[in-house]
Design brief:
This protein has 287 residues and is mainly beta. It has one domain: Beta Barrel (Porin). A hairpin with a 6-residue loop joins β17 and β18.
Length: 287
Amino acid sequence: MTIRKLFIYLAFSPCLLAVFFFSCEKEKNEQVVQTQPPSNDEPLPPVHHSVRDSFLVDSVAWYESAENYKLCKYEYDELNRLKRRVLKTGIIEYSGMRIELYIDTFLYSNGRLEKIEKSVTNGGNTSSLGYFLFFYDNEGKIVKSKYVNNETCYGYHNGRVDSIYWENTSDFYSLLDYDANGNVIRERRRCLENTTGQYYFQTTNYNYDNRPRPNFGMGDNFVYEPLMGMGTVVGNYIRNGSTNNLLGNGYSYWSYEYNEHGLPKAMYTGRFPGNSTKWQFFYKAVE
């Protein structure tokens, strides 16, 4: 059986996929990234997660100056599902202010998110940025996503994503471990050492607060990152596949201020603590 056939067979056979992953964990070479993310001195009392279902994110703002800002607006359908995300950016250039609108449109079929169309508008001209496609099993779990020509497949254990295949191949994948609260606390990613040609596992650990994440009307979809600017910082499946708000992973850090409902009203991000950017969250009550 060829590697490609093996990948396809395993990707759509969750039980065999789990066995395959277990055997792969026995590889000798494993690189561990030790992490000690910052934590609050005084732990906050937990907030019941039904609060999360009572509010949707209306907008998120990042503002440095009148010449450099981002404002992201979220629109929902009658079922409180995200139907459009509009990101407005303003950047000062030598020729003047450049305003761009990045628009993501969400299309549903049979009650499931099927496609996200991405575009950008600049100076009245609109260009396509491609689209996401999502594929489901009979239980409604995402087993594959596709963006342009890049496909990613997902394996499950006890209803949670525990394995992710990258780059249309069985050579590169991630294994995920969870805590009792449903947060991804460890990722082991299989990588290739170019100089030796040997594969190894790079391990990254994550920690969280005890508050519910903001609700963007995405349901169980962990693939798409609704918060602008975060897709390249940490895997979407880590942040959106967890229950609480991510605090750190050893090289990037996040801290939060909370509103009267216990939801984040501000998030501070930065590669190093104290060197942060502030994002502000605004909510609306679910009707």
